[in-house]
Amino acid sequence: MRKNRTDANFEAVPDDQQVKAGVPDRALVERMAAGEERALGALYDRHGGMAYALALAIVRESADAEEVVADAFGQVWRSATQYDAGRGSVAGWLATITRTRALDLVRARGRRTRAVERAAQADPDGLATPLGTPADRADRQIERHEARRLVTRSLAELPEPQRRVIELAYFGGLSQTEIAAELQEPLGTVKTRMRAGMEKLRGSLAPLLVGGSS
Amino acid sequence: MTDHQWTELTAPYALGALDPEERARFETHLADCAVCRAEVRSLKEVAVLLAESAPAATPPAALRERVLREASRVRPIGARRPGRAPWLAAAACLVLALGLGYAYLRERADLQGTSAALAAKSDSLDARDALVATLLSPDLSTAGLAPTGQAPSARLYWSPSLRRVVVAVFHLPPAPSDSTYQLWAIAQGKPVSLGVFNTAVDGHLTAAMNVPAGLTFELTAVTKEPAGGSPQPTQKPFLVGKVSPAD
Q1: What is the ipTM of this complex?
Q2: Does B48 sit within 8 Å of A92, measured CB to CB?
Q3: Chain A partners of B19 at a C-beta cutoff of 8 Å?
Q4: What CATH number matches the domain at B3-53, 3.40.50.2300, 1.10.10.1320, 3.40.50.300, 3.20.20.370?
Q5: Confidence at residue B246, expressed as pLDDT on a 0 to 100 scale
Q6: Which of A126, A205, B68, B164 is least surrounded, with the fewest CB atoms within 10 Å of its CB?
Q7: pLDDT (tens digit, 9 = 90+) per residue, B58-105?
Q8: Which among A34, A108, A105, A37 is positioned nearest to A74, based on CA atoms?
Q9: Which residues in chain B are closer than 8 Å to A65, comparing Cβ atoms?
């Protein structure tokens, strides 16, 4: 998600050259808008792993996750002409599409998301391990690795009840009311935890945020 | 609600964790509140980063081929075109608004002062993308559907290249469960159904619908029909509009 810091160095790369690792994401999207399938392949090589991991954190079966990712990249491809950098990073755009598709698929099948299943299986003390743990990190790309590490660590450092309501909302697709029912906690408590947790995350993730804190 | 209470909804809104009614109310507030908009924009950035915390997983090698194979069957829709019509500035605002997760339709200059905030009926990204793509297409036509009675009104945006319309309906009470509203394209005097719809409890709706291939039409109309819709109108239209270029 980090803004590519080398944009200026690569803007002059001619279209007919190989897609290089340093080409900014949004330049890839521009080439996709012109119908260049190779640019889609390059975007997949960069963010396919993130999209697949995200899909798999929401759906349960790998076949479902593959369907979600294929659909999400299909949507990115079809609507590449509509991408507006002012709305956020390409990776963020892809993540939002992937999450929505994954939650739609789970709902269409009348199932519960993986995150909700995990919450239901939490031990009697109410402790659940974070969805992503430091041991999961296997990224080879340095920048993405750093972003992943900061996000994973920031989430892990949240008080467990705050982290859990945020994960149930983002990966579980649950509303505050549904989270309160799932955890058998008062709605007011859920609201307070969600707000406090998001505030803390905004502080700890500040280096990754384009607009900074409001 | 006080301003403070609205601010408390920004975090759950950014996470998509408001219940539908609460979300609709908040989106109406967002249309008027720059402070909450900025807060939502910032918190949405945080929410999007949560994707990075998903446990790492390696996609199967065949998935890359599948993505490319499926893409090779379609071309990206539309094309960037310089020199867009002035009204597109308004549409660009709409895109930004949709980026925040709410539909905020501001009528064009000739209708200024009658701007209205709409809570999108569906929050699926697909529906919103279809809506935005249609509104941004270079060959857009539009029709104001004038009431033959008084209260309800509607505006239709039609992109022949995308074969899609976006219809925005205002102040139309939801149809009871045994009936539905139906949108018609009238081509050379012959009505062709574009789809059925119903409004939300607040009487508003923004929706994208597909247009049959090859269909061009001069007029558009809305009727009330039995649930499920009708192959041909069974009632007199209560909203009718003439299509003209949106420039």
Answers
A1: 0.80
A2: yes
A3: 175-177
A4: 1.10.10.1320
A5: 65
A6: A126
A7: 999 999 999 999 888 777 665 343 334 444 444 544 444 443 333 333
A8: A37
A9: 57, 59
CA atoms within 13 Å, Cβ hemisphere of B90: 16
Its CATH architecture, for the domain B133-245, is Sandwich (2.60)
Residue B180, phi then psi, degrees to nearest 5: -150, 165
* Residues A100 and A27 placed together within one structural domain of the fold: yes
Q: Does A169 touch chain B (CB under 8 A)?
A: yes
> What are residue B166's DSSP bridge partners?
B157, B208
Q: Identify the domain containing residue A83 by its residue range.
A: 9-111
Q: Does a structural domain hold residue A1?
A: no
- Tell me which of B10, B43, B48 to substitute to probe the interface with A (most A C-beta atoms closer than 10 Å): B48
Answer yes or no: do A74 and B18 touch at CB < 8 A: no
Nearest CA in chain B to A87: B99
Residues in chain A: 214
Average pLDDT over all residues of chain A: 81
B17/chain A closest Cα distance in angstroms: 4
CA distance B88 to chain A (A): 13
- Output B162 or B112, whichever has higher pLDDT: B162
Number of domain units in chain A? 2
The domain segmentation of chain B, as residue ranges, is 3-53, 133-245
**Cβ-defined contact of A201 to B46 (cutoff 8 Å):** yes
Look at strands B190-197 and B179-187 and give their pairing. antiparallel
Backbone phi, then psi, for B100, in 5-degree steps? -80, -10
Q: What is the pLDDT of residue A123?
A: 57
* Token pair belonging to B94: 């709409």
Question: Which pLDDT score, from 0 to 100, does residue A18 have?
Answer: 45
Tell whether B132 is within 8 A of chain A (Cβ). Answer: yes
